[in-house]
Design brief:
mainly alpha
Length: 133
């Protein structure tokens, strides 16, 4: 039973989430990525190199459990970055919310529900990240 849930139901649910979010995008969303690639490249660099390096260093350097890292430490780092760069309130809240969420489809769902810019940043980064893996 649990194998069926893990191998069939969860992938189907993730597919339907990504497909339905993708339906909200337009061609202009992806053209902005080509015209202004800076945000996508920075997010991709953070997703592939910086965040895993911080997580690895915290997990093995301090022997912290992954759940503690995901729910407390990484959002605190997001808050510190938002405070340090003096981000506007809504951008700071978005940064901390995304830092507190797992990567991949779940973070895309949170950005979509928060009416964030799906095409320019999160779908593009998710596509590149999935392609590189």
């Amino acid at each position: 039973m649990i194998d069926t849930i893990i191998q069939v139901i969860i992938p189907l649910a993730m597919f339907s989430l990504m497909f339905s979010m993708g339906l909200t995008l337009s061609q202009a969303d992806f053209q902005r990525v080509l015209v202004f690639p800076k945000a996508t490249l920075i997010a991709l660099l953070l997703q592939l190199l910086i965040i895993p390096a911080i997580g690895f260093a915290l997990a093995y350097g301090f022997e912290l459990p992954a759940l503690l890292l995901q729910l407390l430490i990484i959002p605190a780092i997001g808050f510190a970055l938002a405070y340090g760069f003096e981000l506007p309130t809504m951008m700071a809240v978005g940064l901390v919310a995304v830092a507190a969420c797992p990567g991949g489809t779940t973070s895309n769902l949170v950005v979509h529900l928060g009416k964030g810019d799906m095409g320019e940043l999160f779908i593009s980064v998710f596509w590149w990240w999935s392609s590189i893996r």
